[in-house]
Amino acid sequence: MDASTQTSSSAPIPAQTLERYAELIVGLGANVQPGQVVSLRTELGKEELTRAVVASAYRRGAKFVDVEYFDPYVRRARILHGSDEAIDFYPSWHRDRVLQLGEQRCARIGLSGVGARGVFDDLDPERLARDRFPFIPEYMQVINDGTTNWTGAGCPTTDWATLVHPDLEPEEALARLWEQVLHICRVDEDDPVAAWHVRLDALKEARSRLNERRFDALHFEGPGTDLTLGLLPTSTWDSGIAQTVDGIAHLPNIPTEETFTAPDPSRADGVVTATKPLQLGGGMVASGLRIRFEGGRAVEIDAETGAEAVRARCARDEGASRLGEVALVDREGRVGALDTVFYTTLFDENAASHLAFGSAYVDTVGEEDRGRVNESSIHMDFMIGGDDVDVTGITHAGERVPVLRRGTWQI
Amino acid sequence: MDASTQTSSSAPIPAQTLERYAELIVGLGANVQPGQVVSLRTELGKEELTRAVVASAYRRGAKFVDVEYFDPYVRRARILHGSDEAIDFYPSWHRDRVLQLGEQRCARIGLSGVGARGVFDDLDPERLARDRFPFIPEYMQVINDGTTNWTGAGCPTTDWATLVHPDLEPEEALARLWEQVLHICRVDEDDPVAAWHVRLDALKEARSRLNERRFDALHFEGPGTDLTLGLLPTSTWDSGIAQTVDGIAHLPNIPTEETFTAPDPSRADGVVTATKPLQLGGGMVASGLRIRFEGGRAVEIDAETGAEAVRARCARDEGASRLGEVALVDREGRVGALDTVFYTTLFDENAASHLAFGSAYVDTVGEEDRGRVNESSIHMDFMIGGDDVDVTGITHAGERVPVLRRGTWQI
After folding, report:
1. Is A44 left (phi over 0), alpha (psi -120 to 50) or beta?
2. Per the CB < 8 Å rule, is B8 touching A5?
3. Which of A169, A375, B17, B112 is buried most deeply by CB count within 10 Å?
């Protein structure tokens, strides 16, 4: 790579390691097929991994890799200076593009992780919460259609690293975060793909045992948490391997340590306290989040910081204040063991059991319940699990069955 | 702006000056209207001016500013690792996007100037010449339809600055290039817009005098140049102010010092020697270019460097080896006076008279000749003028009329 490129190095790791990580993302993650068009969503500050992913995809025979760099300062300018209509608006070709990604059976890769800190801190939280671009609702349609093989993976940046490791110097923090991300993603194993298959098999076993039980509801109990969450008759637990309608296996998230399903959006009652800060995009964080549910709906949202932004997000549409996902995470994964808050959902949700406001993955219920799962233009995960949060299954007969105790499966 | 953004500063000028330049680009240049969607094509390394332009467009009432960052290393990966079909291919949504820009009467802004040097130097010139993305032919259609108000302006980068000023240290070179660009663009005037209107009026006068003459052909004579170029019966000289079909005035280029028309693509005979290096995109340069034309077609292309890339570009389609534009530039403009080679068409073409291979601007001929102008998927300008290149008009009666002598209008 030419030293004269004007973007600072974001990867203090050997080029070969970067390439191994890119290969894992493109191969096991998105499982890019020869002749496929690949959409790659990335961000300024992630240039080196972006380029390694592009090269890897072309080496696997991609027909074209279409790269979109997000610039948080462009979003900042829209929120600061844009008219009211500029906040909700996005041009028609973005919708067409996402729908064509599905129609044309493309692969999709996203590089997440905090790109730049502090860019949105001083902005109007209501405008900030309304502005979701470049996330647009058509992505949920394409995901639910199962027409694209896709993955999201993390790309360390200095800003992200100093958020996660505030006590380290920026360079050390970045090196430490890279080390953690590569460890979590099993890139430090001789054969990362084989290591992942061992873990993915264990997750499949957990979901099978949950599916055998067919609980009517789950009960979460812990400090500040006493929530009963109903499941649908056909709610089916899934784990990190997905298949497209054409049978292409892919990992929507790297890492993935969760097993998840769609709950009944009309049955959530009680109080839940988030066990990790909630990353709201672009470095905005809600901490100390506490939510009270009645009849499935969030009726009170409080937090130490970011409460207004969460409330605004949950007010976007009818389904935004109801739950679309419940996920259970044991303590065997590599994220939880690091005892690190990553301030990014992709990592934190794999450290702890969690819920998500907004849209459900319809594939996790049977045909007869597809009209009952939650619908929304948002999907916002927040962590509620931990070693001191017990998860108990409630059968249709009312029997209580321990599911997770101190992060360990009981079934 | 937050100091923590991971892109290095590209603008060693006061924020207020950057904003003045952005206002000129958005205002006099693209003339963005309230409620318009703006497409902004930019490149990594141009973040600061990009963000200033976005803010300016929103302040003028833009409905949305859609920013596309080009990464030359992504293109490099495609040319290095992509299959043969990856080179010519671009996804359908890019075509749809450009056509919708026209249908929806959007504004378009492009920031040019060398982004990163040396990225393509070691690549196969034939593959490099075939790969034009993100330039796609639909842009020429939208330009010729006159449905978008648009402008292209320059954004200095360190790589560009050290190419133009190899004897200066990078920081000095960048400061010098910014100073030159701001001077050329009249941003150093108290009222840049008023200064531009004075120059634009002078260009209008020159084009009126050329149009009164209705020459049948032009003769270029100078060192290594003896070329006779036919004009069409309705070839009409135009200059830098354009109007959309809805009457929105805009400057397609800032700076603009030229008056131009579409020649007869079947009548170019003789030899022409380029008087400036030809920038082929991404830092690739053809120098010492010498071309022999017969019956309008380039039949011999030689150069000290880059000949193969120019030949490959001219072999793309039937019209790629014929001429679509002839432009005359006097020595009164600010580019020529600096006696600097900018290695970028936007600036160099305004220092000297030039020709362009490929597509014509159909608006510069009457209805009856629109079927006769050159058509191609390329448009590649190359400079042929200078103080020692005489331009002579040839009337239909065969009379020879001096047009430019030592860069000064004779008519």
Report:
1. beta
2. no
3. B112
Is the pLDDT at B184 greater than 80? The verdict is yes
Quote the tokens at residue A182: 């590569």
In whole angstroms, give the CA distance from residue A406 to residue A340.
18
Tokens read off for B305: 């460097």
Report the pLDDT averaged over residues A291-305.
97
Placement of tokens 């929806």 in the chain: B104
Query: Is B37 buried (19+), middle (13-18) or exposed (0-12) by CB count in 10 A?
Result: buried
CATH topology of domain B10-184: Thermophilic metalloprotease-like (3.40.1830)
The two tokens of residue A387 are: 């070693």
What ipTM was predicted for this assembly? 0.84
A and B: number of Cβ contacts within 8 A: 177
Numbered ranges of CATH 3.40.1830.10 in chain A = 10-184
Which of A346 and A108 is assigned the larger pLDDT? A108
| Degrees to nearest 5, angle at CA A142 with A139 and A145 | 150
- pLDDT value of position A6: 34
What DSSP state is assigned to residue A295?
Answer: T
Please compute the mean of the pLDDT values over residues A289-299 and round it to a whole number.
Answer: 98
Joined tokens for residue A120: 């949105």
Which of A6, A55, A100 comes nearest B8 by C-beta? A6
Determine the distance in angstroms separating the CA of A52 from the nearest CA of chain B, rounded to an integer: 9
pLDDT of residue A281: 66
Given a cut of 50, whether residue B8 has pLDDT beyond it is no
Cβ–Cβ < 8 Å for A70, A136? no
pLDDT, tens digit, 9 for 90 and up, residues B363-376: 899 999 999 999 99
Q: Residue A336: what pLDDT? A: 85
Does residue A5 have a pLDDT over 90? no
**Inter-chain CB proximity B93 and A97 less than 8 Å:** yes
CB contact under 8 A, A96 and B91: no
Run of H or E residues at A150? strand A149-154
Instruction: Say if the Cβ atoms of B50 and A61 lie within 8 Å.
Output: no
First to last CA, chain B: 51
- Cα–Cα distance measured from residue B23 to residue B37, given in angstroms and rounded to the nearest whole number: 17
* Residues written for chain A: 411
Residue B210's SS3 state is helix
